[in-house]
Structure formats: structure tokens, C-alpha cells
Specification:
The chain has 342 residues and is α+β, with helices and mostly antiparallel strands. The chain is 22% helix and 29% strand. Helix 2 links the parallel strand 1 and strand 2. Helix 3 crosses helix 8 and helix 6 packs across helix 7. The protein is globular and about 50 Å long. The N terminus and C terminus are likely disordered.
């Protein structure tokens, strides 16, 4: 598949999560819940909303007890056709035609961005400061990543991949990484382990949901997910080269961690309540030793997101809103029931 050049980039979709949230608020599909606990309450409320509201809103959980009130959790990004169309910068009827005709647009590598406003290294890195939820009673731990980006590189070809693989918080500077067999990131990892070399990994959290869609799709091998996302919206995605790994991540992400997996090092990971509705896989999995954390201070607002989570182990698996406009045209509806009705 050829890579096209963006002739006239449109400013409509800036691929910035905060701008996206402003637009979702205009749709009246954004709600806020304060004071929910990270241990099961956030997960339970997420599932109740998905089960009882026919057009479930995106929800921000803030003021999580015991944590900085400015660190928040966002759930249900893509559970309606309206939000999916907004994310793709397309009218619902145009989505299938765009998917058939689109060509990737090469990402724009920039020298700086908001994510570089705060930098922590070594012992200063402490992921325990974030309100990472335990989503379900049967989960093996607290999961920071289920709707994020995991960036890896093929150690033989140098080709990068952007995937969405589950990430479990292990220690203040360690996270467990589970990648299903056959995924591109797994192939990269296995090549590095076979060669006995450390495996560099970058993870981005709080990115625009368009990039989550790209990371979750079966993009053809060798096609970069940032380029695929750029082709979908008709403009290049701004990315930055990581100072530690050299891997590329979104310039507008809320925060990013970089580190490496050492051959032979593992910790117990899982199980986790996966989106089809069952608990899946537990055992020793690779551990990412986090060496640097980058985050956006954003002088306009210091409120940042810990995690953006797709519904897991619930009645509406991720992909419901994303697949409907691809398969058929559906008239957009309004959010008829609000959180106050529950």
C-alpha cells in the first residue's frame, strides 16, 4: 500500500484528546463522576453505565480517594456512533467509502510537544501515584493499559508497530505486558529474546481515541499505524521520537513511559476480565523496567488522565460502536438516559 502526501491538511481533527473531549461535551455525551474508588468502584460503575444506558456517555472519573484530584480516568470513548464519527472526522455515511479508498499519510515527526513538559527519570518515576483501577473482582492486579498505545520495533528490520496490549501495574517503575501470540508486537519481542537483547518499549496513555482505533485494528504488516490513522482523517499525525528508545509516540499524549524488557525477567500477570466477557490468561509475563516518564503539564489546565479504558468484561465489548458504521448506516441517536437516572 503506497503512502500518500497530505495536500491540504485540515485543522478540524487535531488528534488531541482534550480537544476531542470539548467536542464530546458539545454532543452532550460526556459525564463526570467524582469520588469513585480505584478498587472495583470505577469498574463497576463503568459496567452499570454500559448496561443500563442505551447510548452510554464517555465518563471522566476524578477526585479518586487517596490520589491527586487532578489525575483522572476516562472510560467509554467509542461507545456511540456519534463519538465514533467525531473521532474519525467523518460523517457516518462516508466511513465505508473512506476505508475502501484511503491511503496512509506519513506521520509528521516533530521536535517537541506538550508531553515533554515534565520529565522524570530513574528513581523519580512512580506510577503508584496514579489512580490505576482494579476493574474486576477476579483481576490479578491493577490495569493501567487497556486503551492505550504500545510501541515496539522489529529488531531485525527496524519497522515500528503500534499495538494495544494489556498493561498491569507491578511496582512503582515496573509494568507487566501481555501480548497475545501472533501479534506484531509479540513477534518483535520474540525476535529480541531469541537474540538475547534488551527489548525497548514505549507506551502512551491519554491519546486521541483515533490512535486507539488504529492500534486495535489489524493494520497490514509493515504499514505504520500512525500513517494509517493519518490516511483515515486526511492529515498527518504529529509524533515525537522518544529520548530513550528512539520509538515514536503522539506529541499530544497525556503521558508516556519508556523502558526495556530484559531477557529472562518476568512477573506474574493476570488474569484480566477481557472484553468478550471472561477472565483470560494468567502466568509469568515480561516486565517493562520503566526508566523515564514524560507528561504534559499543559498550563491551560494541569488535569491529566491516568488511563483511557475500553469497556472490559461487560455487556458492550469494544468494537460495537466502531463496527456498526462500517457494516451498515445507522441514524445517530441522542443520549436519552443520563447518569442521574440510574
Amino acid at each position: 500500500m503506497a503512502t500518500a502526501t497530505a495536500a491540504q491538511p485540515t485543522p478540524v481533527n487535531t488528534c488531541d484528546l482534550r480537544d476531542w473531549l470539548k467536542d464530546v461535551k458539545k454532543l452532550e455525551q460526556l459525564e463526570q463522576i467524582s469520588g469513585a474508588h480505584w478498587d472495583l468502584e470505577i469498574g463497576a460503575l463503568t459496567e452499570i453505565i454500559l448496561e443500563r444506558i442505551s447510548t452510554p456517555p464517555a465518563v471522566i472519573f476524578d477526585n479518586v480517594p487517596g490520589f491527586d484530584p487532578n489525575r483522572r480516568v476516562l472510560v467509554n470513548m467509542l461507545e456511540t456512533l456519534e463519538r465514533t464519527a467525531l473521532t474519525l472526522n467523518l460523517l457516518i455515511d462516508a466511513l465505508r467509502a473512506r476505508l475502501r479508498s484511503m491511503q496512509p499519510i506519513k506521520a509528521n515527526v516533530v521536535s517537541g510537544g506538550p508531553v515533554f513538559e515534565n520529565i522524570e527519570r530513574g528513581d523519580d518515576v512512580d506510577l503508584m501515584k496514579f489512580p490505576v483501577p482494579r476493574w474486576h473482582a477476579g483481576d490479578g492486579g491493577r490495569y493501567l493499559g487497556t486503551a492505550h498505545l504500545v510501541v515496539t520495533r522489529d529488531p531485525e528490520t527496524g519497522i515500528e508497530n503500534v499495538g494495544c496490549y494489556r498493561v498491569m501495574l507491578q511496582e512503582k517503575d515496573k509494568v507487566g505486558l501481555y501480548i497475545s501470540p501472533g501479534k506484531h508486537g509479540k513477534i518483535h519481542y520474540e525476535k529480541a529474546m531469541k537474540a538475547g537483547k534488551p527489548f525497548p518499549v514505549a507506551m502512551a496513555f491519554g491519546q486521541h481515541p483515533l490512535l486507539y482505533i488504529a492500534a486495535s485494528q489489524a493494520v497490514p504488516f509493515g504499514v505504520n499505524e500512525y500513517d494509517w490513522a493519518g490516511g483515515l482523517i486526511g492529515q498527518p499525525i504529529d509524533v515525537i521520537e522518544g529520548p530513550l528508545t528512539g520509538l515514536h509516540f503522539p506529541a499530544s499524549a497525556e503521558f508516556v513511559i519508556e523502558g526495556e524488557i530484559i531477557p529472562g525477567e518476568s512477573m506474574q500477570e493476570g488474569p484480566f476480565g477481557e472484553w468478550p466477557g471472561y477472565y483470560a490468561s494468567t502466568g509469568p509475563e515480561p516486565v517493562l523496567q520503566v526508566k523515564i516518564r514524560l507528561s504534559a503539564a499543559r498550563r491551560r489546565s494541569n488535569r491529566r488522565f491516568t488511563a483511557c479504558i475500553a469497556p472490559a468484561c461487560g455487556p458492550r465489548p469494544f468494537g460495537t460502536a466502531w463496527s456498526k458504521p462500517v457494516c451498515r448506516t445507522s441514524k445517530a441517536s441522542t443520549c436519552r438516559r443520563r447518569l442521574s437516572d440510574l
